[in-house]
Design goal:
The complex is a heterodimer of chains A (263) and B (372). Chain A is built from six helices and eleven strands. Chain A has helices at 38-54, 69-78, 96-107, 129-137, 191-196, 245-258, and strands spanning 3-7, 9-12, 33-36, 58-63, 82-86, 114-118, 141-151, 154-160, 166-172, 175-179, 203-205. Chain B is α/β, with parallel strands linked by helices and 372 residues long. Chain B has helices spanning 2-8, 19-23, 34-44, 47-50, 63-67, 74-87, 93-105, 142-146, 148-163, 180-184, 188-204, 215-225, 235-244, 274-282, 319-330, 340-352, 364-371, and strands at residues 126-127, 136-139, 168-170, 209-212, 231-234, 257-260, 287-288, 334-337, 360-363. A five-stranded parallel β-sheet of chain B has the order 1-3-2-4-5. The chains are: A alpha/beta (263), B alpha/beta (372). The complex binds iron/sulfur cluster (2 copies). The site of one iron/sulfur cluster has 14 residues of chain B, from helix 2 and helix 3.
């Protein structure tokens, strides 16, 4: 079972004040703390679990500048065998489709049974790279995957649907799956583990290495373009509850009660 | 590797007398049996024997080590086993999240760094990260920085120090976790990284004297950082000195019956038993009574050793619940303590027992601030 996992380094914005940069199209990195995308963490874990079960290799792929090597080292520490970083200034401004094109060039000649991506990235949340990549590769794909079982050269996967439903689909290999959080319990990656991975080689590839031209990638090679980022306007319905935790929780409970939240 | 554990922790010196298990507060309510664990590590020599789920129940309170007639340190063995498992990625998910929070944001709750010193906004406290200078660094602690209940202790402490004329400052948003619980959860690599970063920061800021809110920070600094150029104190030591030298004086009476719960990291692990009692007895009006199980025999609150982030397998009554019940029987108005984790676990127990309002859980510092 040879598995390629696509990972992305993203800012942790759960509690941070997100500041939109002057160009109105990006977010200021400022004091933001970066880490592997939450969904990708589960994808890497799932790949390593399958490797532990069936043997084979796990290759982690990411796209981005030097800093993204941290993310790949984390993948090594989780159990990946190889890592590839795709990097070129021409890649800037690529949308999900252009990113899928870049990854496609990097993986199409690799030997693989499965390619995993996270279901979506916590920063732009498109959820497109996996499906577009599958279509470029001409392989089947399944999205929002919550369980993977392999038998007789086929995968039986469970997909999360709306309203708490799941469906089970059988997919011939090779295939692309986008992995949902909760599919497993990602292991802790210790500092010692990351340090041990410090010496491992990370392959890099740029535009020319991948046989691409500037027309294929960046804004020119994209199907969508971010015009403007903005914070959602505060509407009248929103109420910021002030006061001590006791006061605030009492007020919150009252609101929920008034709106029929407790029955 | 298990050969390593048996030798590293000198387990062959163990005579299986069982004093460790007899003293272990956690074995009162659950399956943890430290004597048996030692035996199994010695005989089976595989990690699986040691990796029973209940071994995460250990609070690393160190009672076992205190009681062992052969001078073994069973609680360090637990930390060692956790370390070996962590290198395999095997750790409860909640503990994993706490460690990742420390790595990414400098605190086990994973709260954002830019809000670390929000509690001190408008209090006019010197901030050494902004270039202010002071004789003493007040090391606030993650719990006191982010937990609204424990923030009250930090406010009481800074207010009292200011009134006593002490020249102190905090590290503002530059302060990071001391790593005490990180080490005790077994993440030695992350702990070493924190020691290195924190000492570098202390030296850069010219810090020579540090006082802490938490016995956990104090214990880590004093016993594991061991920096010869910096003097570390728990606040109970400093405040006891300020009172005895007449720098801190009281103007109000607190007519309450008060007992004191010894935090394990302050008492059992650092033999600081007298200073907290001295402070409480100095406050006018307080009638002080000790628990039957006090000082070296004190019951653990179960907040240590990473247990703030690990639910544990033990099903019996929480030790903090027993503590509160005892306090009610003694007829006290207030259970005082001197540790953020004890404060939170005991208060939780009082609420769970429906005794909220009947008995108060306070940090010693809050009582001091009230009586000044
Ligand atoms: S108290 Fe010491 S000698 Fe006795 S069983 Fe425990 S570890 Fe062994
Ligand atoms: S450190 Fe405390 S909880 Fe852990 S085994 Fe020893 S006595 Fe029990």
């Amino acid at each position: 079972m040879d598995i390629v996992v696509c990972v992305k380094r993203v800012p942790d914005t759960s509690e941070a004040d997100v500041i939109i940069a002057k160009d109105e199209r990006t977010v200021e990195a400022g004091d933001l703390v970066f880490d592997i995308n939450e969904w990708d963490k589960y994808a890497v874990e799932e790949a390593v679990l399958l490797k532990e079960k069936y043997g084979g290799t796990v290759t982690a792929v990411t796209l981005g500048p030097d800093e993204t090597e941290d993310t790949l080292r984390r993948c090594f520490a989780t159990g990946a065998d190889k890592a590839i970083r795709l990097t070129d200034s021409a890649f800037e401004g690529s949308d999900a489709a252009a990113i899928a094109k870049i990854i496609h060039q990097a993986v199409k000649d690799l030997k693989f049974d499965l390619i995993f991506t996270g279901t979506q990235a916590s920063d732009d949340g498109y959820g497109q790279v996996g499906p577009v990549l599958a279509s470029l590769l001409g392989t089947p794909h399944a999205s929002v995957v919550t369980q993977v079982d392999i038998a007789d050269g086929k995968a039986r996967v469970q997909r999360e649907l709306e309203g708490g439903l799941s469906e089970v689909v059988e997919v011939p290999l090779p295939a692309v799956f986008t992995i949902q959080t909760g599919i497993n319990e990602p292991r802790y990656v210790s500092i010692m583990g990351v340090r041990k991975a410090a010496g491992k080689e990370i392959e890099t590839a740029g535009l020319a290495d991948l046989g691409l031209t500037a027309e294929d990638v960046g804004e020119k090679g994209s199907m969508t373009k971010v015009e403007r980022l903005f914070l959602p306007p505060v509407t009248k319905e929103a109420e910021i509850i002030q006061g001590s935790p006791d006061e605030a929780s009492t007020r919150l409970a009252q609101i929920i009660k008034d709106k029929g939240g407790f029955s | 590797m298990q050969q390593g554990l048996a030798e590293k922790y000198e387990l062959f010196g163990c005579m299986q007398c069982g004093k460790c298990t007899a003293g272990c507060p956690v074995s009162l309510r659950g399956p943890l049996n430290i004597r048996r664990l030692i035996r199994e590590v010695m005989i089976d020599r595989n990690l699986e024997a040691a990796a029973r789920p209940e071994f995460w129940d250990c609070t690393t309170c160190s009672t076992c080590s205190l009681r062992c007639p052969r001078g073994l340190e069973p609680h360090e063995l637990i930390i060692g086993i956790r370390g070996a498992l962590i290198e395999e990625g095997r750790i409860p998910a909640t503990a994993r999240d706490a460690l990742e929070g420390v790595f990414k944001h400098g605190n086990p709750w994973g709260r954002i760094r830019s809000k670390r010193s929000e509690w001190a906004a408008d209090l006019g406290i010197k901030d050494l990260s902004k270039g202010d200078k002071a004789d003493l660094l007040y090391f606030v602690c993650c719990a006191a920085s982010y937990d609204p209940r424990v923030q009250e202790v930090a406010k009481a402490l800074t207010d009292s120090l200011a009134k006593a004329g002490v020249d102190f400052g905090i590290l503002g948003n530059e302060e990071s976790c001391c790593g005490s619980e990180v080490r005790r959860m077994g993440e030695e690599g992350l702990f070493e990284m924190l020691v290195e970063d924190n000492l570098k920061l202390f030296h850069e800021r010219g810090i020579t004297k540090v006082v802490t809110t938490s016995p956990h920070c104090y214990d880590a600094f004093k016993n594991k950082y061991q920096d010869s150029e910096i003097e570390f104190q728990h606040y109970t030591q400093l405040v006891a000195d300020l009172i005895s030298q007449g720098q801190l004086t009281f103007s109000k009476e607190l007519n309450k019956v008060v007992t004191y719960h010894d935090p394990c990291y302050l008492g059992k692990q650092n033999s600081i038993y007298d200073e907290p009692r001295y402070i409480l007895k100095s406050i006018p009006g307080i009638q002080f009574v000790d628990f039957d199980r006090c000082r070296e025999r004190s019951l653990c609150c179960e907040g240590g050793g990473g247990r703030m982030w690990v639910e544990g397998t033990d099903a019996g009554e929480r030790l903090s619940g027993i503590r509160i019940r005892d306090a009610v029987e003694m007829g006290v108005d207030i259970v005082a303590t001197a540790c953020p984790f004890c404060l939170l676990t005991l208060e939780d127990a009082a609420k769970t027992a429906g005794l909220d309002g009947k008995i108060e859980i306070k940090d010693i510092m809050e009582l001091v601030a009230q009586a000044i």
